[in-house]
Amino acid sequence: MTRTAGRTRSDVLPAELRLQNFIRPEQFPYQCKTGWIYDSGDYERAMRQALEMADTKSFAVSRRRSVSGAR
Predict the structure, then answer these.
(1) In 3D, which of 46, 54, 44, 56 has the Cα closest to residue 17?
(2) What is the CA radius of gyration of the chain?
(3) Is 37 within 8 Å of 31 (Cβ atoms)?
(4) Could you tell me how far CA 28 lies from the centroid of its own chain?
(5) Among 44, 49, 42, which Cα is nearest to 28's?
(6) Which is it for the CA torsion 16, 20, 2, 51, positive or negative?
(7) Residues 6 or more apart from 25 whose CB is under 8 A from it?
(8) Is 9:1 a contact under the CB 8 Å cutoff?
(9) What is the pLDDT along the chain (71 residues), one digit of tens a residue?
(10) Do residues 65 and 71 lie in contact, with contact meaning Cβ atoms separated by under 8 Å?
(11) Which of 12, 22, 46, 58 has a Cα-to-Cα distance from 38 of 20 to 30 A?
(12) Within 1-71, where are the H helices?
């Protein structure tokens, strides 16, 4: 479940929500509301690589087995 702006949504995984909110490469340079300027980055690609390296799909299966008591 993901909590966003006071609402609970079970249809969006936290990682997918983060991916939707990253600054896109075509938006650079990007100035945020606090005045900070981001000059470059490909945060979506980096996040996808990290998720792949962490093997989150296998982790989800393993977690479900653990919660259900199966080994």
Answers:
(1) 44
(2) 16
(3) yes
(4) 20
(5) 42
(6) positive
(7) 41, 42
(8) yes
(9) 455 555 555 667 888 899 999 999 999 999 999 999 999 999 999 999 999 998 877 877 888 888 887 65
(10) yes
(11) 12
(12) 14-21, 43-54, 56-68
- For the entire predicted model, the pTM comes to 0.64
At a CB cut-off of 8 Å and minimum separation 6, what does 3 contact?
A: 9
Residue bearing tokens 């990682």: 15
* Packing angle of the helix pair 14-21, 43-54 (nearest 10 deg): 160
Token pair 């966003």 is found at 4
Cis peptide before 29 (omega within 30 of 0): yes
CB 1 within 8 A of CB 7: no
